[in-house]
Amino acid sequence: MDELLAKLVHSMRNRLNAMVLEATDLGERLAERLPHQAAAAIHAEVQPLIVQARDAAQWLKTVRDRATPPEPRPTPVRVRQWAEPSLLHKLAAPTESDTAAGTDAPDSAPRRAGTHLRIADDIPQDAEAQWDTALVTAALRELWLNAWESIELDHPCDQPPAPPTPGAALVTITLTSPAPGTALWTITSPAPARPSTQLTPEYLATLGHPGHTRRRQHLGLGCSFAVAVARQHHGQCTWRLAEKLVIAELALPMK
């Protein structure tokens, strides 16, 4: 299935890129043959179509990359030092595919401000791991975005969500080591309060499968990407409910 999807995306991107090149070439030829005013009018009509085609090609690339993550290139990582200084800034930083994929809000500052990162004491200062940090960061980012988008889906814009306890962060990212050789990332967020959006253990079990999502115009590829990255690193990614909280867990091997 992954190979078929990759071939379909490759074929469609080639067609879109060919359309962009042909439309661009046509505009240049018309600019040489037509009066300036007429050529400018045609350019104004054609340029939005070119932009749409380019965005569609980028969106297809994002779908391919999320459906079939690249092979990891693990490097030695000092876990605590890598996570502590700027992980939240890395998660909140926009990526090239955000605009085309529609996976992030234009301003991520409120999300970053409403997130608390905690590194537990059971993570030694010299703890190391063999991770592809780009892929692990991308997987954590998808889980973090999924938590925030679920919160925002459950609360109208004029009724901002309240934290589980006064003064607490809405989303908490915690890194612990529940067992020797395991680094466990947990992303905790409030469970939906409205009956129409309440989650069930049965629904959470479907997360990580492409196409399973509550959000319109989304394909559920963020969660499946996180699951794929976990498997590539010989770990696992799961979701569970606990005391009106949704907890995403990303477990990775650690020395």
Question: How would you describe what is shown here?
Answer:
This protein is α+β, with helices and mostly antiparallel strands and 255 residues long. It has two domains: 66 residues; 179 residues, 2-Layer Sandwich (Heat Shock Protein 90). Helix content is 49%, strand content 17%. The strands form two sheets. The chain has a five-stranded mixed β-sheet. A hairpin with a 3-residue loop joins strand 6 and strand 7. The longest helix is centred in the first third of the chain and has 32 residues. About 3% of the residues have low confidence.
Distance between the termini: 34 Å
Name the strands of the widest sheet in spatial order. Answer: 2-4-5-7-6
Order of helices and strands: HHEHHHHEEHEEHHEE
Radius of gyration: 22 Å
